[in-house]
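User: Just a sanity check before I run the rest of the batch. Below are the structure tokens for the first item. I only need the designed sequence back.
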């Protein structure tokens, strides 16, 4: 090789080395200060993300020096957003796509409906869970125009287009059975009184859980004494209907006045809560002593209702004590009380042919337990029953049998013979659990008869012991 050639090669080699050094150096100097893991990122909607996590490396700086601005990102909304990373006045951008890759979940229910009703896919679907809004539809156009079962597929789709399908059965039944109303009754109301036509009335249907009830009371004029008709119509969701007519008797307000004691020696034995398994025994004792008494009855012992008639036929007085004897029910409202009173009145009417006007409040007029259910109700009821032509009777003596079941006979006799009033109204009970009351009865009657008292049943001339009203 020639000397010149060698020199040329050496110079060339040097130039190449320098060039490589220069190129690499420029590359290092020019490379971005922030290097990302990927050119773009994705994150699940409403998921967790941290903009720092997308950085792979930082050159010539500390990662803490980067200013990150991700204010444009809305993690709750599908879309593509830009995160800005700033370092030394240089800005880098990274695209972040908020995605939804999770298909919706939901529960499916078979549908059992009546022919003619609208079928919506939504009616078969419950508890949809997804991070975005969803739509519900049938997969195909199904026909629901005939009775029978149809297999359907329901599709729930989210905003991102993820779909979940589930199958169900739509059962269509032709309903021809009419709904019925229970608890209907005639009304008696004082002039200008109020009537709650729907109170206590229940609608029932074989298919429709909530049949519609309408009341036509246009005819009723509570401002005018008379008898009117009120019409009830109950309609189920298939349009099957039933109608009923009840009467409303509007009566004059005839306040019943209270009567004080008179000079005659009279005992009014009163038995509450019957009839019961003890009623026949009580009647027998009363017969033995030729004593008359009063029974304030309830609807809780209807097995013995024939004894109401028997007692009435024997000359005893039947009074009303409420149908249910449930404080929470009868003292829930004035209307509730009169609805109940109406019911027991009708029950007794079924036995003796008329509605008695003598009543006794559960717990007496002085009870305070009613305050728990309706404040002030006793003040209203004590006046209102009289305005409606009833009279209520508390008591001025007691056997003490309200204090418990099967109270000792001696104790009942002692308490039951303690009064020295001219007119004595004794509170006693007629229930299965108060057999000792029956046992104490002869001695109580003998005691007062020996003192010249007569045992009478309540009538229009009986004194009206009214206790102090406390509610
Ligand atoms: Zn009672």
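Assistant: Here's the designed sequence for the first item:
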């Amino acid at each position: 090789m020639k000397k010149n050639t060698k020199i040329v090669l050496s110079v060339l080699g040097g130039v190449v080395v320098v060039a490589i050094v220069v190129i690499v150096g420029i590359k290092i100097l020019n490379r971005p200060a922030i290097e990302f893991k990927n050119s773009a990122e994705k994150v699940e909607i409403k998921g967790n993300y941290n903009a720092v996590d997308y950085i792979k490396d930082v050159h010539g700086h500390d990662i803490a020096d980067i200013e990150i601005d991700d204010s444009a990102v809305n993690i709750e909304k599908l879309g593509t957003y830009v995160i800005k990373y700033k370092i030394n006045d240089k800005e880098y951008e990274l695209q972040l796509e908020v995605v939804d890759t999770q298909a919706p979940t939901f529960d499916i229910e078979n549908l059992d409906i009546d022919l003619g009703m609208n079928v919506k896919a939504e009616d078969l679907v419950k508890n949809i869970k997804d991070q975005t809004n969803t739509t519900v539809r049938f997969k195909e156009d199904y026909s629901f125009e005939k009775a029978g079962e149809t297999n359907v597929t329901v599709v729930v789709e989210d905003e991102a287009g993820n779909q979940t399908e589930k199958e169900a059965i739509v059962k269509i039944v032709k309903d021809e059975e009419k709904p019925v109303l229970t608890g209907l009754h005639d009304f008696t109301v004082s002039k200008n009184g109020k009537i709650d036509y729907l109170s206590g009335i229940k609608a029932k249907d074989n298919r429709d859980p909530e049949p519609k009830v309408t009341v036509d009371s246009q005819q009723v004029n509570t401002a005018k004494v008379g008898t009117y008709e009120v019409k009830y119509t109950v309609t189920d969701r298939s349009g099957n209907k039933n109608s009923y007519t009840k009467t409303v008797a509007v009566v004059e307000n005839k306040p019943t006045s209270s009567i004080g004691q008179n000079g005659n020696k009279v005992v009014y034995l009163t038995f509450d809560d019957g009839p019961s398994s003890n009623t026949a025994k009580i009647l027998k004792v009363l017969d033995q002593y030729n004593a008359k008494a009063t029974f304030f009855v309830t609807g809780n012992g209807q097995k013995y209702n024939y004894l109401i008639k028997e007692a009435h036929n024997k000359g005893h007085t039947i009074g009303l004590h409420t149908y249910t004897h449930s404080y929470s029910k009868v003292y829930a409202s004035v209307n509730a009380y009169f609805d109940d009173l109406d019911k027991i009145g009708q029950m007794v009417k079924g036995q003796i042919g008329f509605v008695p006007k003598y009543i006794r409040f559960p717990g007496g007029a002085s009870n305070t337990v009613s305050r728990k259910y309706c404040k002030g109700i006793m003040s209203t009821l004590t006046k209102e029953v009289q305005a409606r032509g009833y009279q209520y009777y508390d008591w001025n003596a007691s056997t003490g049998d309200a204090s418990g079941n099967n109270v000792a006979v001696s104790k009942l006799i002692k308490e039951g013979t303690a009064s020295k009033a001219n007119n004595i109204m004794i509170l006693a009970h007629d229930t299965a659990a108060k057999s000792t009351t029956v046992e104490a009865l002869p001695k109580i009657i003998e005691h007062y008869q020996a003192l010249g008292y007569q045992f009478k049943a309540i009538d229009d001339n009986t004194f009206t012991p009214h206790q102090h009203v406390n509610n």
